[in-house]
Amino acid sequence: MTTTLNRADPAGAVPRKKDRGGPWLSLLAWVIGILFVLPVAWMVLTSFHSES
After folding, report:
1. What is the pLDDT of residue 21?
2. Computed over its alpha carbons, how large is the radius of gyration of the chain?
3. Residue 36 pLDDT more than 80?
4. Whole-number Å distance between alpha carbons of 35 and 42
5. What is the per-residue DSSP string for 1-52?
6. Residue-wise over 1-18: b if at least 16 C-beta within 10 A, else e?
7. Domain boundaries, position 41
8. Would 10 be classed as within a structural domain?
9. Structural domain tally of the chain?
10. Average model confidence (pLDDT) across the chain
11. Does residue 40 sit within a domain?
């Protein structure tokens, strides 16, 4: 037998905060992440070149 319990929101529950930044904050995080990864990728890719 399976039992489910439906809880009502407590009287003192704090409502969720509005999404701050939204897609702009996400875009900024992606740009900063890519800026950190690109130099490392550049060093790895150039390390495979021969010294001729």
Report:
1. 79
2. 24
3. yes
4. 11
5. -----PPPPPTTPPPPPP-SSHHHHHHHHHHHHHHHHHHHHHHHHHTTS---
6. eeeeeeeeeeeeeeeeee
7. 23-51
8. no
9. 1
10. 85
11. yes
Residue 21 tokens, joined: 């930044």
Is residue 12 included in any domain, yes or no? no
What's the distance, CA 30 to chain centroid? Answer: 8
User: What is the pLDDT, as a whole number, of residue 2?
Assistant: 78
**Could you tell me which residues come within 8 angstroms of residue 28 by beta carbon, excluding any fewer than 6 positions away?**
21
Model confidence pLDDT, tens digit, residues 1-23? 777 777 776 677 777 777 777 89
Residue 9 lies in a domain: no
Tell me the whole-structure pTM to 2 decimals.
0.52
State the Cα–Cα distance between residues 37 and 21, nearest whole angstrom. 23
